[in-house]
Design brief:
Length: about 425
């Protein structure tokens, strides 16, 4: 019996000891090559900074824009100011120009979407505003379009918001405008908190209080970011004290996560992380500001199923549109992996609706050739629609609605 035990012990040792040696080697290598003490190079200083947070925590909807908020936002690229813009939230808590809910309008449309619909870069002007104007001009009727775009929202949260807002506003038509990335975005929450005396705003993958170890900063904030300062900093960035402070804050946020790596962790294998997940530090990486869905069918999410049922109960017709980002416009095709395609098909099945696709030639209904795609976006620093891009999407949606659901006299086809 003893010889067998010895053989078994030797066999186990022959397997375990090399693995432990490899694990130790992996930890030493990762530590030696980590950037913990190297700082954040200037080319990685790419972020938005704001004078204040234009949103508040909402347990049901993730967050809500603060009605009446006026905020200055600055884009920093490679450590230098690239551009700035005002963010204006209207009295309804939206980013468009509609200051109120016009119950007397001949036609009322609600639009739900992500940052392509909210479009914070234009300081209170969105493509739903252009849609309202175009429909009024073509119908000769009064039209009220309310834009419920929320930056970083995915499909599931768009339907959360729609199930809440549609019964309250009683529109004639509801429009959902999504981009390819929206299909796999999960629910997230934003919340303000004071950490070591400093105001910070966090994006979280679960509701409730802020857990710094499971949250990420949504934006760098400093009340010194004013339009006047932004103009001066863009013209003369070198040596600006506030700009250096903003960059230092961003560096600190990045390095916070490097300091959380426990090289002596008895419960995490750096080697297994590398082999199975492609990243030896996978267990320590900061969470994504936008969680990703693990499933491929929206019917597995009870809340989305309930939301669709609540929308159907209102008897308000709603329509699904997929709009394109700059690269999709250039390529004349959506960039969709298998999970996104499966989720899109499941939404069509659950709603009984078919997506109208606006990409490339299908989006440029009367605009110049697709080769001029860059002019429709705020490139190179921002992929969201430019002024011409907002007009393009508004016209594509208006054309579709007039072709499929709105009669020339403004009445609806049922």
């Amino acid at each position: 019996m003893r010889p067998k035990l010895i053989k078994l012990t030797v066999l186990v040792a022959a397997i375990v000891l090399p693995l432990l040696a490899l694990e130790l080697a992996a930890r030493v290598y990762v530590y030696a090559t980590s950037d913990k003490d190297k700082g954040v190079p200037d080319h990685q200083l790419n972020f938005f900074a704001v004078s204040a947070f234009p949103w508040d925590y909402d347990e049901a909807l993730g967050y809500r824009y603060t009605p009446g908020a006026h905020v200055t936002r600055l884009r920093i690229s490679k450590g230098k100011p690239a551009f700035w813009n005002p963010i204006r939230i209207n009295p309804l808590g939206n980013t468009d120009m509609a200051a109120d809910d016009d119950a007397q309008a001949d036609l009322k449309v609600l639009v739900f979407g992500d940052s392509y619909t909210a479009n914070l870069a234009h300081g209170g002007t969105t493509w739903p505003d252009a849609l309202e104007r175009q429909l009024e001009e073509r119908l000769g009727k009064s039209v009220n379009v309310l834009g419920f775009g929320r930056d970083a929202y995915g499909v599931v949260q768009m339907f959360d918001l729609a199930a809440y807002q549609v019964p309250r506003h009683a529109p004639d038509i509801v429009v959902f405008a999504v981009i390819s990335d929206d299909f796999t975005r999960g629910r997230f929450w934003r919340r303000r908190a004071t950490v070591q005396g400093e105001p910070r705003g966090f994006a979280m993958g679960r509701p409730g209080g802020v857990d710094v170890y499971h949250s990420v900063d949504a934006r760098i904030v400093d009340p010194g970011i004013t339009p006047k300062w932004c103009e001066a900093a863009i013209a003369h960035p070198d040596g600006d004290a506030l700009l250096e402070s903003l960059n230092d804050k961003f560096r600190t946020r990045r390095l916070e996560w490097s300091s959380r790596v426990n090289y002596f962790s008895p419960t995490t294998s750096f080697l297994a992380n590398r082999l199975l997940r492609g990243d030896p530090l996978a267990s320590f990486r900061r969470p994504s500001p936008i969680p990703r869905l693990k499933y491929s069918d929206y019917s597995t999410d009870a809340q989305t199923v309930d939301n669709i049922g609540r929308l159907n109960a209102t008897n308000v017709p709603f329509y699904l549109f997929q709009i394109c980002d700059p690269h999709e416009m250039r390529d004349n095709a959506f960039r969709m992996n298998d999970r996104k395609k499966a989720l899109r098909r499941s939404l069509e099945r659950m709603t009984g609706k078919t997506f109208a696709d606006f990409v490339g030639d299908k989006a440029l209904t009367t605009a110049p050739q697709r080769e001029q795609w860059k002019r429709y976006y705020l490139l190179p620093h921002d992929p969201h629609p430019s002024g011409p891009g907002m007009e393009m999407f508004a016209q594509a949606v208006a054309d579709w609605l007039l072709d499929h659901t709105i009669n020339a006299d403004g009445s609806l086809r049922r």
